[in-house]
Batch of 3 targets.
Target 1
Amino acid sequence: MESLKYLFDTCILVDIFRGKGGVQEKVQEIGWRLSCTASVCLCELYAGAFKRGREVEFQRIEWLKSKIACLSFDNSAITYGRIRAELEKQGRRIEDMDLLIASIAIDNDLTLVTGNAGHYERIPGLKLLVWD
């Protein structure tokens, strides 16, 4: 069995839900079985679903959970703390949710797939794949 290689950021999941041109095809190319997301991304998706109150959004999240693995943050606390401290010392702080997602990718040796390179470029040791 092949191991996981890619972690989808929240923006990529939203692009999948919306059928954004090219994203679904790219997912098919790399394969669902090699892909995962983070519990932090699910938090962001659920927040959006509750904000809009549309049942279809909850159904999309459940569909997603049936397709790919979801990694938790528990084992990435040290990485998060180290990177956050480094970036703050440099005056280059980033959003906590983005740093949580990146920490999970780093600790699991995954390539983070995102459409928002600017959110992640400053994180040392992060493998990044940008889908525009």
Note: Strands lie at 6-8, 35-38, 69-71, 111-114, 127-130.
Target 2
Amino acid sequence: MSESKKWIEKLSLEAHPEGGFYKETYRSWETGQFSGFEGTRNISTAIYFMLTKDNFSAFHKIKSDEMWHFYHGSAIVIYVIDLEGRLQKLLLGTDIEKGQRPQHLVKAGCWFASRIEEEGDYALTGCTVAPGFDFRDFVMAERNQLVADYPAYKDLIKSLTR
């Protein structure tokens, strides 16, 4: 059994709609009303998130800030199209000499996608979302529309959308 399959099994990870695998590990019991959100949201949520070398997390956006944490395996690249339309390439991992960092923040409302770009079978990460994640706040990118909005990133968008 591969290392990635062991992690998937032991952590009870499930397929995520954006790609990869996940398991919710925390949902705050406390809720609140937040500007820009319909209804109440949990204050914070957290998941395990795993990418494998043959998969990627497709471009999507959420209404909340999302903090990524690196745990194990290969480093990943998180591509972010910020609110001004600029592309950022965040390296999530532990090799600080290569510019990697063990945490990165993706701000609310930004389009983002991720994948493994170096040798390795998998990347085990975690994501903490505040206000807490809710699928009502999740938008999967539509390839043609995202390319029309950001033509300079056409090749990247085509490679990281389904």
Note: Helices lie at 3-10, 143-149, 154-159.
Target 3
Amino acid sequence: MRWHYRLNEAAAPAALLELLAALGHARRDGARRLKRSLLDTFDGRLADAGLVLEAAQDKKGALELSLREAGDPRGDTWPAAQLPHLACDIERPRLRARLERITEQRALLVRGTASCERHRLVWHDAHAKRIATVDLEVYRIRRGQAALALLTIRPVQGFERACARLLGHLTRSKLVTALTEDPGDTLLAALGAPAPCRAKPLVELDRGMPAAAALAALFEAYGEVMWANEPGIIDNLDTEFLHDYRVALRSIRSWHGDLRKVVAKSARARGRTELAELNRITGRLRDLDVLAEQLPVYLAEGGGTHATQAAALAALVGAARDRARRAVVKHFRSHHYRAFRRRWQALATDLARGRQTGRRGDARLHAVVLEALRRRHARVVNFDWSRAQDEPAVLHELRKECKKLRYLLEGFQRLFDATLCRRAIVELKKVQTAMGDTWDLHVHHALLRELAAALPGDDARARAVLPVVIGLETRLTALEHAHCELVTRAFDHFRLPATQRIYRRLLEQP
């Protein structure tokens, strides 16, 4: 039984209201003007979890939030003072905890907003018992277009059969059509809202296609991810916009290097320089984002830090982050960056059309990718781990090798057995996580030392911050050594014969 309907284009809302009133001995509660908004994370995490978060605000400013399963008219509804920016802003503990697990503290953004006139009716049976609440919402999306009318039926528990008989009469009237999607999706489609952005879009690739055409498709898809994340970085909505931007950027850089013979030498040289510059500019902001997020944890674990000193250090890190963000925003708005975007899009187009290709541009994609995977895998497995245990810079080199291997697996996963590829990525992630945590400690150690050293000696902030930084240096150094043990165990596990059998089977596929 479906509970959501859409008014057919040839029908009038007034005619449907008359029918609804006649069907269920209805009492009409009148019309109410509302502004309805649908919220989700930028990458559609609520939609992926089958949830719909809505906000309805009337003319008097009263705001209600509701969370429901997609396709289900029922859900939790509660009053709110303002739209939540993060899941932690939601007052209800259980809902807050549930949304925090799903969103991982990514910003909740308004995906679409529309004003509507809501007509509410209450259906009764012959004994005057309430059996359902009926809402007809009429949206005027664009001037000159027919209204979008969405009907929702909420049956009272125990009266589903009685409602089913009435719904049979409703569907036979030909005024409405049962929705096959959630009404929120219908509204977003009518508003022309863009689809959620995926940090790692799956690009359809064929083993036998030319390598240049495949690289062009990946460059275009991941370039679009970068451009789509720019507004969120500029408006400072959520640190994850920069994270997703850099994931796409690093993936492109990795493929640009590993499949370098696919691209013409001149185009490759220019692209390598521009991508490296972009990685450098955005890298400092990302490091400070992670430090600002981890700083309260470091201070809490260290203990004994006065609140005033902790606040001074947090303000120092926050000021450095603001400077780094302004530098990124300035670069994004520069003529140089706009020219880079045009050149990058032109390169993707040229590669797709067989221009600016290198000597392997027309080679079979599977053969080119397999060569790159074998080369990168060998560099990871044969890495001299003893060199990295006491030297963070060497550890970082291994970390980058692992990242490049993973980007190859993720970008070209459609060419290989799905199960084997997924298992290979999971095993690689374990090593990356251990190395990433260790490298973050090293970077944060250096950043704190740099920020403290930049303060004038007679500055009041320096007197407040320096003792905290000295204490944190001792703490972070100890954590680095402890994490190195974790990395050793993770890397040893990765090189076990059982783990390497996964890669051997993957890389031996014809």
Note: The chain has a mean pLDDT of 89.
